[in-house]
Amino acid sequence: MAKTLLIVDDSATMRKIVMRTVKMSGLDFDKTEEAGNGVEALEKLVAGPVDIMLCDVNMPEMSGTELVKEVRKLPDCESTKIIMVSTESSQELIDGVMADGANGFITKPFTPEKFQEKLSPFMN
User: Fold this and answer.
1) Which residues of the chain, if any, have pLDDT below 50?
2) Which range marks the domain in which residue 106 is found?
3) How confident is the model at residue 1, as a pLDDT?
4) Which of 25, 55, 64, 82 is the 20 to 30 A CA-CA neighbour of 101?
């Protein structure tokens, strides 16, 4: 079954690194989109939900933690899997975003194997 991916990060370079690492992991997405911040991501999600969203925590305009809360309010995005990707790794932050509705957390620096491990359960 074809899956769609949305990569949300305020750094265009980091979005490209995430994209390349996802491809190296062997995971296959039918369609991949990018957003530079939470506001942009919400606009894309309202236009059409995605299967999996990889989201940075620290972004201008709307942080990743705020975005998780907003996405969970969208009826069409109830099944969207949200994986946070961040250099921040405090247990408090991880527990908070998971409680808000995130489905996983990947700490930078990441590897193709880490994406494989975290995303594979959602590829069925």
Assistant:
1) none
2) 4-122
3) 58
4) 25
Indicate the number of domains in the chain: 1
Q: What is the CATH number of the domain that holds 48?
A: 3.40.50.2300
Residue 124: predicted pLDDT: 78
pTM of the model: 0.95
8 Å CB contact between 45 and 74: yes
CA angle at 72 for the pair 67 and 76, rounded to the nearest 5°: 115
Q: Phi and psi of 9, rounded to 5°?
A: -160, 140
Cα separation, 50 vs 32, in Å, equals: 9
| Three-class SS state of 89 | coil
* d(C-alpha 118, C-alpha 6), whole Å: 15
Residue with token string 């705020």: 66
